[in-house]
Every structure is written in structure tokens, then in C-alpha cells.
# Entry
Amino acid sequence: MNIQKEPFMDSSYLHQYARSADDSTLFDGAALTDKQRELIAKVDQYGVAWAERAFKHDREASFPIDNYKDLHEMGFLGLCVPERLGGLGADYRTYMLVASRIAYYCGSTANTFNMHNANSLWTADMVDEMELTDEQRASHERNRALHYGNMLQGKIYSQPFSEGSGAAAGKHPFGTIAKRQDGGWLINGKKIFASLSGSADYYGVLCTEDVPEPTYANTMFIAVPADAPGVSIVGDWDPLGMRGTVSRSLLFKDVFVPDTAEMMPQGVYIRAAARYPHMFMTLTPCYIGLAQAAYDFSVAYLRGEVEGVNVKRRMYPTKQVGIAQMYIKLQQAWALFHRVTSEFKAHPSRGERMRAYACQHTIMEYCAEIASAAVRVCGGQAMLKTFPLERMFRDSRCGALMLPWTSEICIDRLGHGLLYNEGERD
Ligand SMILES: Cc1cc2nc3c(=O)[nH]c(=O)nc-3n(C[C@H](O)[C@H](O)[C@H](O)COP(=O)(O)OP(=O)(O)OC[C@H]3O[C@@H](n4cnc5c(N)ncnc54)[C@H](O)[C@@H]3O)c2cc1C
# Structure
């Protein structure tokens, strides 16, 4: 046997690189709390009705307003409002877990619920932990008490930031402008894909303060009342999937809002975004819940347990292989989801940030792959509109398109971020 003799390759680089192995090895998973289990159980009480309504909302491309009445009754419009301000006080991971179960029953409800909760999750503890002036803290306390009060009374908020430019991807300032006026702001601009258009009571708009040579740092987060003069909804809504989100375009023409419309003090949004990057993956629960639903439908279908199907198909080896492959992807996605949602914190490490991109990419792509496999594995009858699977198949394709972390952008950032340390360039 020809065994290589010294000198072997100098492997001392492993001293340094073992740190990246640490990053993958040394992880303590967070156990679910009683509160998280209770909130998920509450969703289960209502969810079947949402799954049944989903057929109609998908067919009509109409907003599932009755589900929001339920969410209000459940206290869930205040899910991420701190307990001291009357809400259920869900933190980031709790929100993510609960939202995944909502999506299990209705994708459009979970997709839009994300937009509603962005207005509370972003503005609660995360802002409290940031450095603010006394004046900023006082005005924020006053403003959010007002908005959280609205939510607790059943008002629905949305979060339109997309404009069809590079702004939503963080490339340049938002084109929607907030101009300072006595006692408030004058808003002008256009938002596309504004989920909940026509159903939200407030549009939580990301816009740019009207200053000379504005940058992304001049971003403002302002809640515009849907009935304010100058707000209009334009364009139609007849998309492939997530049809119940009703994401039409919004126009703002000289819309005056008072100072209390500020959801965050000036300049804080951009600091918060840099400090808490995991906030940009709050749509992952929607798509992992959907993937789980597509998988579970397939198991029930192959076992002959779905109403309207009386032939079992589980005995065919190809079906067994198909379901096993779907399950493997689903478990990979859940494993990343649990890990990454447990790692939420201010200023995560580079490894944690990279893992968040990997998580977003995995869930958005696997959701579409699992739903697509489900159609193939179940077969022709399963894709009739009497079953939810064909809707899940269409809904599942939308996750990868969500800015600012589309699947492509995640790959871009991973590719660069894994090979370059901070400040390095070639
Ligand atoms: C069902 C649904 C609901 C939605 N709801 C909302 C909502 O409530 N609020 C909201 O603000 N938006 C919402 N969106 C919009 C979504 O977040 C995106 O803004 C939208 O899908 C982008 O479409 P676009 O064609 O303008 O993308 P473009 O900006 O043209 O991008 C097209 C693709 O190019 C790639 N790309 C874009 N910029 C970059 C870059 N800088 N670097 C590398 N690659 C890039 C991305 O992969 C992207 O998918 C929703 C979208 C859908 C489908």
C-alpha cells in the first residue's frame, strides 16, 4: 500500500475554521413554551373554518374578512402587542410559530397577518431596546399606544413597502415621500402589491422624508388611515396565487397625516432593520405552514381519507417514495426554521445571518417543491378545484418572490457573505 509520507498538507487553518463548525454544532434548541402551545391550540379551534372559506376567497380573489373577525375575537389582532399595553405579548419566535399554524389552514390569511403584525412586532420591544432620545421615546410611547389600541379594537393594519423599484430590496430610498407639515406629514407616492388593500384600516407605509439628497437612512414608517382624503386603490387583482391577499396598488396624493401616524421615530426604521435582520423573514411561517398542509393533504389523500376520494393509493411503492421525499424536505425546512427562529436577537453573528438567508431560501423553494410533488404524487383527481391542493400549488410559488429577501437575493447574499469577511474585496 502506498501511504503518503510527510510532509502532509499543513492543516493549521482548521484551528480557525473549526469556529465555523462550532457555528453549526453548538446549538441549544429552544423548547416551546406553554404560551406558544396555547396560542397554537387556539388557532386549531378556528382553523378548519378558515380552510373551508379559502376555496371561495381563492375563486373570487377576495379578502378573508371573516377570518379577521375571528382573529379579532381571539385577541390575535393584538398578538404582538406587549401585554402591558393590552395585547398577547407574542415575541418573535412565538409569532413565527403561531403564524405557521395559521398558514396551515389558510395561506392568504397568514400572508396578510404577517403585514398586520409587522406594525406591532417591529414597534414594540425592538424599539424599546434601541437608543432613543427622551423625546423620541415619549412620542413613540404615545403613538404606539394609539395604534395598538386600534388593533385591539379590531382595526387591521397592512404594510405596503413595495414600489416596483429597487427600494424594497434596500437598494435606494423609497419613492413615496413624506413632507413635513405643521403637526404632521404630507404623503405622496405609489405602492404596489399592497396586501389587504381595501380591507385594512391603516396602511403602514414605508416612505422617505423629504430632505435634500435623501438616503435609505431617511426612511419613515407611517400609518396612513385608509379613509384619509387622497388615498386611492388602483389596478386589478387577478394573480396566480395568494389571491385572498388582494394586493392591489395604492396611490397617495397629498395625504395629510398627523404626527401620531409615525409608527417609529424618524431615523429609527433603518437602524432597526440593520440591528434585527431576522425581521425580514417573517413570511417564512406562511410558507412552511403551507408546505406542511400540502404534505398532510397528500398523506390523507393516499390513505383514502379525503372526502370525495374512495381509492387508497398508499400501497404503490412509487407513492411511498414520493411521500418520503416530500417528508425529508419538510423536515429539513422545519429544522432550519426552529433553529433560525431561536436565534433571533439584536446584532446576530455573521453565521446566524447567513443561516437566516439559508432558512428563507429553503422554506420558500421547498414549499413550492413540496406542493408540486404533492400534485404529482396524488395524481390528476387531486388537482381538481374541489380540493385545496391546486390552490396550495399556486400559493406556494409566491413565497420566493417576496422582497426584500427573494430566493435570488438570498443566494446573492449567501454567495458573497460566505466568501468575504466584512470589508474585504477583490
Ligand atoms: C401575494 C403577494 C403579496 C404581496 N404583499 C405585499 C405587501 O403586503 N407589501 C409589500 O410591500 N409587498 C408585497 N408583495 C410584493 C413583494 O414583496 C415584491 O415586492 C414583489 O413580488 C416584487 O415584484 P417585482 O416584479 O416588482 O420584483 P422586482 O423588484 O422587479 O424583482 C424581480 C426579481 O429580481 C430580483 N431582484 C430584485 N432586486 C434585486 C437586487 N437588488 N439584487 C438581486 N436580485 C434582485 C429578485 O429575485 C426579484 O424576485 C407581495 C407580493 C405577492 C406575490
